[in-house]
Design goal:
- The longest helix has 18 residues, at 171-188.
- Helix content is 33%, strand content 26%.
- Helix 3 (102-109) runs parallel beside helix 5 (141-154), helix 4 crosses helix 5 and helix 5 runs parallel beside helix 6.
- The chain is built from six helices and eight strands, in the order E-E-E-H-E-E-H-E-H-H-H-E-H-E.
- It starts with a strand and ends in a 7-residue tail after the last strand.
- The protein has 203 residues and is of the alpha/beta class.
- Bound molecules: adenosine-5'-diphosphate (2 copies).
- One adenosine-5'-diphosphate binds next to strand 1, strand 2 and helix 1.
- Residues 13, 15, 20, 22, 40, 42-48 line the site of one adenosine-5'-diphosphate (ADP).
């Protein structure tokens, strides 16, 4: 059984009289522990797909089986649990809370999570043990993204979803962030999905 099995997935948006089809009958499988990069130009439907996989949006039709369960059949409560227990999310613009330190940002994220990891250990793993008490404004873009990755990993997610995680970073810093995500995938056996429009950064 695949970790993720997507079957005939469709997501359409109603725009007044017309219909925009963001995802048109997608079919693919992802194995547990895989590192997957989804590459495509702006408007291709990548963010829509990632939001569907993360239980943040609802499909128009089709199925997304995650460990055998179709999350497209989930009600809102089940989706909330799914997002909380299974999913880590990394965004292009980090989305850290500005008046909390690096450590506090990670601690806050795991407050309601049962099977969480030690925030200090996770920050150490992303190379930030010397930045625990710094605020986001005191960190470089690459460091802020490392905090965001630590925050996602502290939840011990089965699936790490990354939406243009290098999009706000220079080439070299972006490469290092991708390397960190790949190392994490290998070491923790976390399934990682990265979307990007930048083919130069595809590993
Ligand atoms: P990408 O992430 O690859 O840039 P998106 O998933 O953001 O692509 O968008 C795919 C298509 O769906 C685009 O044509 C976009 O305009 C449309 N779309 C995305 N979100 C919405 C929305 N909330 N309402 C209407 N159309 C949308
Ligand atoms: P894209 O480049 O994929 O078209 P954006 O760069 O606008 O989209 O945002 C990247 C992702 O981060 C999107 O999935 C969006 O939903 C999410 N995002 C952006 N800003 C916020 C925010 N303030 N809070 C939560 N999520 C956000």
């Amino acid at each position: 059984m695949s970790f993720i099995k997507v079957v005939d997935l469709v997501r359409q948006y109603q725009m007044g009289e017309s219909v925009v089809t963001a995802n048109d009958r997608l079919n693919f499988d992802i194995e547990e522990g895989e590192f997957v990069v989804i590459l495509g130009p702006s408007g291709a439907g990548k963010s829509t797909l990632l939001n569907l996989l993360g239980g943040m949006d609802k499909a128009t039709s089709g199925s997304i089986f995650v460990q055998g369960e179709d999350i497209c059949r989930y009600n809102d409560l089940e989706l909330t649990r799914y997002r909380r227990d299974k999913i880590g999310f990394v965004f292009q613009f980090y989305n850290l809370i500005p008046n909390l330190t690096a450590l506090e940002n990670v601690e806050l994220a795991i407050q309601i999570v049962e099977d969480s990891r030690d925030p200090k250990k996770v920050l150490d793993q992303v190379g930030l043990s010397h930045r625990l008490n710094n605020f986001p404004s005191q960190l470089s873009g690459g460091e802020q993204q490392r905090v965001a990755i630590a925050r996602a990993l502290a939840k011990n997610p089965a699936l790490l979803l990354c939406d243009e995680p290098t999009g706000a970073l220079d080439y070299h810093t972006g490469k290092n962030i991708l390397k960190l995500l790949q190392e994490t995938c290998r070491r923790e056996k976390t399934t990682v999905i990265v979307i990007t429009h930048n083919s130069a950064l595809a590993p």
